[in-house]
Specification:
heterodimer; A: four-stranded antiparallel sheet; 11 strands; B: mainly beta; six-stranded mixed sheet
Amino acid sequence: DVKVTQSSRYLVKRTGEKVFLECVQDMDHENMFWYRQDPGLGLRLIYFSYDVKMKEKGDIPEGYSVSREKKERFSLILESASTNQTSMYLCASSLRTETNEKLFFGSGTQLSVL
Amino acid sequence: GENVEQHPSTLSVQEGDSAVIKCTYSDSASNYFPWYKQELGKRPQLIIDIRSNVGEKKDQRIAVTLNKTAKHFSLHITETQPEDSAVYFCAASMRPGGFKTIFGAGTRLFVKA
C-alpha cells in the first residue's frame, strides 16, 4: 500500500521561528499536497505540486512556502511561525492520471506555535 | 473558485439506523466527488467516490448520490455500526486538468450502541 510519511507527529515552536514540515511518499506519485485541518473548517489546501520543482498555490498560501526538489519529497515551510498557524497539517499524494484521483494522506503533524 | 458546503456538522444515530450527509458545490465544472472517512487520531481515507456521469454508486452499506442540476451530492450509510463513528468529509474536484480537491467542513458521526 502507498505510504505517505510525515517527519513529525507533534511539533512545538516559538513565534517567529522558521519551521519545516517534511513529507515523503514511496509510490512514485506525481502530485503532492499540503492541507491544514482545523475544527469546523475541514481540510483547506495550502499548496500543491504536480511535478518536481513545480508548485501551485492553494486556497490559503499566505505565510507558507513549499519546496519539491525530489519527486518523493514535499516540504512545507513556515518562514516566521505565528500563533494562528497552530493546526494539524496533513500531507497527501496522488497519481497524475485521467482516472485515478484518490488522495493518500500522511498521519499528520500537530503543530503548536507558542 | 470551488466552494463545498457540508451538513450537518454533527450527526448522532442509533446503531442500525441510517445516516445521511449532504454536500453542495459551487463550480459546475467539478466532475469528481470523493468521500473520506477520518477515524479519531487517524488519517483520512477514501471510502467511496462518484463521477459526474453517474447518478448513484453503492458499495455494501454506503452509497453516494449526485444531482448535477442542483449541485448536490449525498452520502448514505445504512445499518450503521459503532465502527462507522468518525468524521466524514465530502470533496469536489475537476478532472482532467485540475489537481485541487476542495473539502467540505466535515460531519462528525456518532453511532450509539
